[in-house]
Amino acid sequence: KQEVTQIPAALSVPEGENLVLNCSFTDSAIYNLQWFRQDPGKGLTSLLLIQSSQREQTSGRLNASLDKSSGRSTLYIAASQPGDSATYLCAVRFTGGGNKLTFGTGTQLKVEL
Amino acid sequence: NAGVTQTPKFRVLKTGQSMTLLCAQDMNHEYMYWYRQDPGMGLRLIHYSVGEGTTAKGEVPDGYNVSRLKKQNFLLGLESAAPSQTSVYFCASRPWRDEKLFFGSGTQLSVL
After folding, report:
1. What gap in Å lies between CA A107 and CA A86, rounded to an integer?
2. Quick one: what percent of chain A has pLDDT higher than 70?
3. Residue A47 in this model has a pLDDT that exceeds 90
4. Residue A22 pLDDT more than 70?
5. Of the candidates B33, B42, B50, which has its C-beta nearest A104's C-beta?
6. Interface residue A49 vs chain B (CB under 8 A)
7. Which of A54, B42, B48, B59 is 20 to 30 A from B35 via CA?
8. CA distances from A8 to A88, A112, B87 (A)
9. Pick from B8, B5, B1, B56: which is nearest to B33 by CA?
10. Which residue in the set B59, B100, B106 is minimally distant from A43, CB to CB?
11. Is the link from the previous residue into B61 a cis peptide, with omega within 30 of 0?
12. Do A36 and A89 contact (CB within 8 A), yes or no?
């Protein structure tokens, strides 16, 4: 079964810390992997999309890496700020899965002053 | 540019009632999706559409119907609501050649 797992479910860090969020997936045959941010009561916002042929993508203080062989992706957030507090979700489009994205359950991040 | 708009934002139904959730996008996107989000579970795909007049089943389609009569609108219907359909429903869209998804702000539905 194709699954996406995100551990830990929650994380609290002091402002200014560099941090890494983890995403693992059970099948290395993927089209792409996408990281989203979800604020309470809001929809999801796409942060970074990594195609299967890519190793990483960067946007501002965010960097996402992809290692298909080990079934892992990480989202690196540099110099965290209280405004980064949100739930971060990872989603994978598996080969043979059609149009479906398989989502992880997310990591709830709190950046404290 | 409104993006993806969902109506209503909140709704309470009694078991057996019917309702329709509306999703509208103004980005001329071909693909549209309906997801549900439940505590402790990832978002799950209900139905999707790859273009006007087309629909397809997703992961959890039972109890739901959809229609896409116009390219900008994707409707999700519940014919006879059940408590198991209590959830937050999200609509999303994307253009044909780009897999970056754009989400609406969600509809919180409670079925009593």
Report:
1. 8
2. 100
3. yes
4. yes
5. B42
6. yes
7. A54
8. 11, 17, 23
9. B56
10. B106
11. no
12. yes
Among the partner residues A36, A100, A104, nearest to B58 by beta-carbon distance: A100
Q: Which residues of A touch B45 (CB under 8 A)?
A: 99-101
Sort residue A41 into left (φ over 0), alpha (ψ -120 to 50) or beta: left
d(CA A60, CA A56): 13
Structure tokens at B62: 């039972």
Q: pLDDT class for B1, splitting at 50, 70, 90? A: low
Cβ neighbours for B102, distance < 8 A, ≥ 6 positions apart: A46, B3, B4, B25, B27, B29, B92, B93, B94
Q: How many CB contacts within 8 angstroms connect chain A with chain B?
A: 56
Rounded-to-integer distance, Cα A12 and Cα A47, Å: 20
Q: Does A99 touch chain B (CB under 8 A)?
A: yes
Mean pLDDT confidence for A40-55: 94
* pLDDT tens digit sequence for A73-99: 999 999 999 999 999 999 999 997 777
Q: Do A4 and B45 make contact, defined as CB atoms within 8 angstroms?
A: no
- Given a cut of 90, is residue A7 above it in pLDDT? yes
Cβ–Cβ below 8 Å for A45 and B103: yes
The pLDDT value recorded for residue A98 is 78
